[in-house]
Amino acid sequence: MAVSFSLTPNEIAKKAKDKGYKFLSDNLLSPTIKNGLPEKTFMLGDNNWNGSQPWMIKISKKNFTYINKKSPFYTSGISCVVKQDEATYKIPSNGKKNIQVKFVVKDQTKTNTADQERGSTIIFGQVLNKNKDFKSIDDIILDKDTFRQLVKAFKGDVPFDWLTSYYAQQKVLLDEVKPKSKSKFNRDGGFMDFVTKLIAKKFGIKKKDNWDPADIWVISGDERQYINKIKDSLEGPHQTIIELNKILRGYFKSKEVMGISLKKTGSVAYYEEVNLSDVIRDTTTDNFDVPMSDFIALFNIESKTGMFTQDVKIKVDDPDTNKTFTFQIKANSSNSKTGSNLKFEPTMKGASAARLGKAPVDDVCEILKFIKSSASFVNDYGKYPATALEFKTHPKGESYFRNTVLPALVKGGSKITTDVSDIDTIISNIQESYNSSMDRTTNTRCKLMGLDFFYQVSKLTKNQRNEFVTDMVYLAQKKAFGKRKDFGPFGKIF
User: Fold this and answer.
1) Are residue 296 and residue 412 in the same domain, yes or no?
2) What would the mean pLDDT of 412-431 be, rounded to a whole number?
3) What pLDDT is recorded for position 318?
């Protein structure tokens, strides 16, 4: 039977007592829960436990440390086997067979984006339409109706880190987004399905998020009235995406239809409205200053992995807002065993838990070539060597990097920031990294792709480089700018 982590701490103790395990309930669980858990509700038990197998209880790292160092489980001298992030206690019982209780650290649980977004819609609906008042993460877990829905959405394993994010998101929703009372939150079907199909059929935009990254739509009243009005307004062959954006801006400002992009947050969330005005930045003249020294690639081999990090980074300072963006350029699928293309994803200093969105790589490459035709990068891992042996003779292998790429980046007039500047050492480390058992034909190849991208950018003049990187920042955030005026309006919680 599948695990269902739906029992709150007090329910865990009650289930133990109901099953006849009084010592476990009264002497171990109850005093542990009552007297010492650093994070009171970050302890969830498997409701499907039937007594024949170890009882799985997931807890946060802080609670795990307490249980195994200070709690009655530890001080009672009960038999225990502790592994990394897992502790199994053998519980004695009079009149019943001994059982095992297994505490497992799960601060984070691997989930998919759809489940994460459905979780947000559950929380938002409870807050806005059922007047739930969540003053803490504990309130979310202890509200039976809300938590039951989350357990169902996450198929029995609600992530602690997303509970933290949901609390922060709903606080920003009420304090800053301020949707109309009784608004509905649409992610699946309905308005989302309508607008996705509309832009594909009428404007040839196949990926909705490359136009407007809204994950949910907050809709006041009957969504059909807005759908019908949009259909009527765009009737005929000559309407453009700009006209649709204008309609959606009007709905957003009146809080009738609001597209909201949701990013994972820490304990504090932020809100920003994007593309809600007609002001569009001309990045040819109004751009960030990004010297090549803000391009970063590290080559030292890590002892644990036998390879270097696959990513390269670009740091971008915005003096007008005192924001710092860091672009991480790395594999789109780091665990792939066959290779992976790159993704370009920035974070913002001060909100490091939130990714700001991926820059569409095809657009990045297209703009790079538009600014300077000789600066051409193709995001295709198949064009780079997969192994140390291929690196020896490949067109994009040792000769290319030793004689062309690395001299420009670590010896030339536009040097990047690196921890190794000797070309022979870098080449040696590339070969060593390829030979690591953890490379999987992906890690080192992605590093070479990132370096080749840096080399292509190094061909630009200072002004061209500043323009290009500013374009990247705007592309990633789906903010309209001179070369891409067609991004749709949305609010962003991050």
Assistant:
1) yes
2) 92
3) 87
